[in-house]
Amino acid sequence: MIEIDVAVLRLPHGEGLPLPTRQTADSAGLDLIAAVDDGMPVILPPLGRALIPTGLILAIPAGHEGQVRPRSGLAAKHGVTVLNSPGTIDADYRGEVKVILINLGAEPFTVRRGERIAQLVLAPVTAARLVTVDAHDATARGAGGFGSTGVAGG
User: Fold this and answer.
1) CATH of domain 7-124
2) Average pLDDT over residues 118-143
3) Residue 124: is the preceding peptide bond cis (ω within 30°)?
4) Is there a binding annotation on residue 73?
5) Which residues are involved in binding substrate (predicted)?
6) Of the candidates 64, 71, 73, which has an alpha carbon nearest to the alpha carbon of residue 86?
7) Does 71 count as an annotated binding residue?
8) What are the structural domain ranges in the chain?
């Protein structure tokens, strides 16, 4: 596993909360934590969504991105996921990291201060340089998409 340093600025409403950490030695993601007011949890009704603060500003190193992904336990147990998954934190962004949570479950879900709400995975970025051409090479698939290769295993 490759490790890189990421500078973190903790905002006042993030004071007292632990920094995101990996839960096991081989975990890919750091668990992001809700920095909501202790006395005012956020209640997500079914199909409700909210922007949840983390209380952190990250300086992602150039050539990398931060990917905000759902936590599988929240999704499996409660139907709560990250709406724009994966969300991207660009290397030049210097605002607070916030997570758009949506409740796809049948019951209201309460987001409390200090709760692990999402994962942050750092990934290298390959910058694309688009080049116009007059034609593309032919492939067996061609322009077939959206189910054109079938759905049955085999």
Assistant:
1) 2.70.40.10
2) 93
3) no
4) yes
5) 71-73, 84, 88-90
6) 71
7) yes
8) 7-124
Q: What percent of the chain has pLDDT over 90?
A: 86
SS3 content of the chain, % helix, strand, coil (to 5): 5, 35, 60
* Sign, Cα dihedral of 126, 85, 115, 49: positive
- Is 110 annotated as belonging to a binding site? no
Q: Is 137 annotated as a binding residue?
A: no
Contact, 13 vs 52, CB < 8 A? no
The 3-state DSSP class for residue 14 equals helix
Per-residue pLDDT tens over the stretch 60-104: 999 999 999 999 999 999 999 999 999 999 999 999 999 999 999
Distance of alpha carbon 88 from alpha carbon 111, whole angstroms: 22
- Contacts of residue 103, Cβ cutoff 8 Å, sequence gap at least 6: 44, 45, 46, 47, 48, 49, 78, 79, 80, 109
89 is in an annotated binding site: yes
pLDDT at 27: 92
